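Field reference: sequence -> structure
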Amino acid sequence: MKKVDILVLGAGIVGTSVAHALQKKGRHVTVLDKGAIGYGCSYGNAGWVTPCFAMPLPQPGMFWKSLGWLLDPESPLYIKPEFSTQLAKWLMYFTKSMTHKKMNQSIEVLAEISKESLKIYQELSQKHDFSFQQKGLLMVTQTNEGYKAAVEELELMALRGITGKKLTPDEIYKMEPSIKKNLLGGVYFPNEAHVEPLAAVEKMSQEVQNLGGTFLPFTEVFQIEAHKGDIKKIHTTRGVFEANLVVIAMGTWSQLLARQLNLSIPVMGGKGYSLIVKNFKNIPLHPMMLIEKKIAITPRKDSVRVAGTLELVRNDESISPRRVQAIIKGTQQFFDLPLDLDIQETWRGLRPCTPDGVPMIGFSNRYKNLFYCTGHQMLGLQSAPGSARLAEELISGTTPYVNPSPFNPNRF
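Structure field:
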């Protein structure tokens, strides 16, 4: 039996950030993961630290739009048809969250934890190299509908202190010569940043270990014992643990573990793809969102990361060649790409999506030594350090820097 202070389950950017925030405050944290540190969703995301993207997944008008997308397996959002009470319940909450009031409440807190995360990454970049660059973010569009959506987001973010500006096509071409001259316009947020995602997790974990924390990769939890409102034992492939506090930060896989405790964590896997492309004729200078295609473009040292699509599934990690091809075709509409595209890597992962698009951060109302920090949809890297600060404040009982109510894990 191994007795520890705080046991964090999950060594992605969320679990690692929580460990960092707690270790800095004098707690001793042990982090477990069934794989290598940072090789879950944290590995393949776009690498954006962009508070301007503090948007929840459910938004007004998305219901009818998503119905049309359901008929197209190459669409930006696809829900795999299946009979499931879990999916039906999730979709019911999802639909109820598609109101302007709910969206604005969500944006308020998502923007706060994202802005805090940007500050923390800036501080970390003074000590470690994880390719932190603050080149801003371009959102580019080829249609009136796309331009309208970009301007609406610009206005919503301006209310939260996140500044940006509208751009004409000629202004975009001057900033970004790599893109085809077929745009209608776009917006630019100058203060946004991007990083190399795996390196960010590794440097954060290095900080935790420098502070005395412990990481145990390739350690899988297979049983949890609880009694009278307390988690007593955590059985893993590397022994049994007792902990004063257990933090669930396992993303999509959190729901499987919670079932052992008769808990429901309503998180669906938002399957996305990320391609590392070697031979762009001109590597972009800035991270870009291709609005109509919902494709993220991130420049790297000698390649480009192309990420996109959202397919709501339950633990399905299969690769769909059709959806990969849809990302390539969508990118080709905006960039002059060679026919023999040199794809160095094809990654897919399940981003943990709650039905209202807001993470679950807080104590369980069933087990007094169980804490949640999970369900960050596509904003895991972007919002993890800010989420971790909130988690530490709730655990230590200090005044939270952001309203914790929308994050209450017992709200569903």
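Note: DSSP finds eleven helices and 19 strands in the chain.
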